[in-house]
Design brief:
There is one protein chain. The chain is about 75% helix and about 0% strand. It contains 9 helices and no strands. Residues about 1-10 and about 15-25 have low confidence and may be disordered.
Amino acid sequence: PFAWFKMKDHMSDVGAFPSFKLYSATYSGPTEDELRAKERLLLQKERELRERENLLMQREQQLPVGFRPMNWPRCWPIMYHSISEEIPEHKQSLVRRAYHLWYYLCFVGLWNWMAVTLALNFDVAALVDLSRYIWATCIAFVGPPLSFKLCYLKLYKACKRGSSLQVFFIVFGAHIIYFLLMFGGFSPVGGAGLYSMIFATRESVVIGSVYIVSTILWFFLCCLCIILFFDARKLRQEEADAADDIAADLLQPS
């Protein structure tokens, strides 16, 4: 048995079992040229950032005093709108309610259009024809932008500048009259309201249900608009009384 060990020792001596050596690679780091190239790149980026900052500062200086960037609507800004920044604190509640009411009007108009479209597809002649459908389409897609410009913006700008609300009351009063006609559901105005709902419930359960919801939505819209109208009148009266008190105090002899 010792013969194998002797043969193994002999084979190791002659190189039958080669030995392996591990070599460790050494890293010398970036060269001087690489460091200089990185330094030039950093300096170039720094100069570009400074140029951009200077360009932005020049543009800001060219803007008129009091300029604010457009932020409404968010999808396609065309104006600056901020109730908390532009409206006096004691008027913010009124303007914010009017703003939310405008969104509610958009929803009611779309629901009314959906109800009239449904009745037209089911060929319910007693409820809708082409002229009524055109009216409902205008109410849903043309009415909200006109209402925003002619009514809400009048209130917004009047409260912002402290000017008269007379134009707002006239336009908003016309809104309320038209909304009452829509709630009544009279045929010529394309409203899915009370009168149309009576015929709708007789024709179909589905159409009747949609018209019932539409009637309820128009009812709440009329109520909210009437409340807002009288709250605006109350605010105007309070401001007029406060102005009279200040004038009376100034006229009193000291």
